[in-house]
Amino acid sequence: MLQNLSPVYLGLLGSLVAGLAAGFGALPILFLGKITNRLQGILLGFGAGVMLAATSFSLVVPGLDAASRANGTLYAAIAVSTGIALGGWFLWFSHNHFPHEHFIKGPEGASLNRIKRIWLFIIAIAIHNFPEGLAVGVGFGGDDIANGLALTAGIGLQNLPEGFVVALALVSEGYSRRYALTIAFLTGLVEPIGGLIGAAVVSVAQPVLPWGMAFAAGAMLFVISDEIIPESHSRGYEKEGTIGVMVGFILMMFLDVTLG
What's the pLDDT tens digit per position in 236-250? Predict the structure, then answer.
């Protein structure tokens, strides 16, 4: 059935499912109280591990394989390395030129004057979520449904605890639980935008596939290293966060191998 659908449609649908997982992950905020800093560190670390494995096994490795088949190993190494660097630079540029504020790290980017704090949080989450949707879209755009499904599962799995942590942070800032849940759902809708762009570009120009995968990998690596891992360690539970990273990495690697 899925084989009969357009890669662009699959990319849009897959990234939408992954994005909505953030909202579903935030549902417990309606009936749970506070969670410990230790558990927050584990959840964030788990998300980082899932993203790291998805980057490695569902983006970098398939990107290298596709480029090698087309133009040899030297081209593959150069193309994927360059794409990763460009993806990382894109996220670095976004962080430095779009005003936003992290729940733990605080404000970054351009001037924050006259912008309500909640919008700074939303911009930060949007910058974070876009490359995730892009990764799912690129995965389906290469006509590899198994790879696209693995990325959808991985990003969705990562979004579940992340959505809860985001909603929890909003409640701690004084927003109502229902409002926090609504914001968690809405921020996930950034991912289908990235998914649509990634799937459309790659499906139209197949030679772009390794570059698109590498670009998405670089963007996700930046998010993992610059945001998620530091935030998982920021409350003094570095070892717990590291255990979360390892568990998330192993689980996503298992999913990628079995689905692929």
Answer: 778 888 998 999 899
Q: How many CB atoms lie within 10 A of CB 90?
A: 17
Task: Please state, in angstroms and rounded to a whole number, the distance separating the CA atoms of residues 68 and 76.
Answer: 5
Q: Give kind and range of the element (H or E) at residue 108.
A: strand 106-108
Per the listing, tokens 């998300």 go with: 47
- DSSP SS3 for 140: helix
Better pLDDT: 113 or 237? 237
Please give the DSSP secondary-structure letter assigned to residue 2: G
The reported pLDDT for the residue numbered 58 is: 77
Question: In this predicted structure, what is the pLDDT of residue 251?
Answer: 86
Residue 54: partners with Cβ closer than 8 Å, 6 or more residues away: 135, 150, 151, 154, 155, 158, 220, 252, 256
27 φ/ψ angles, rounded to the nearest 5 degrees: -55, -40
d(CA 163, CA 190): 13
| Contact predicate 24/44, CB 8 Å | no
What are phi and psi for residue 102, nearest 5 degrees?
-85, 155
What sign does the CA torsion over 118, 121, 123, 129 have? negative
Report in angstroms the alpha-carbon separations of 199 from 196, 227, 250. 5, 26, 27
Residue-wise pLDDT for 69-85, tens only, equals 878 999 999 999 999 99
For the CA atoms of 174, 180, 183, 187, the dihedral, rounded to the nearest 10 degrees, stands at 100
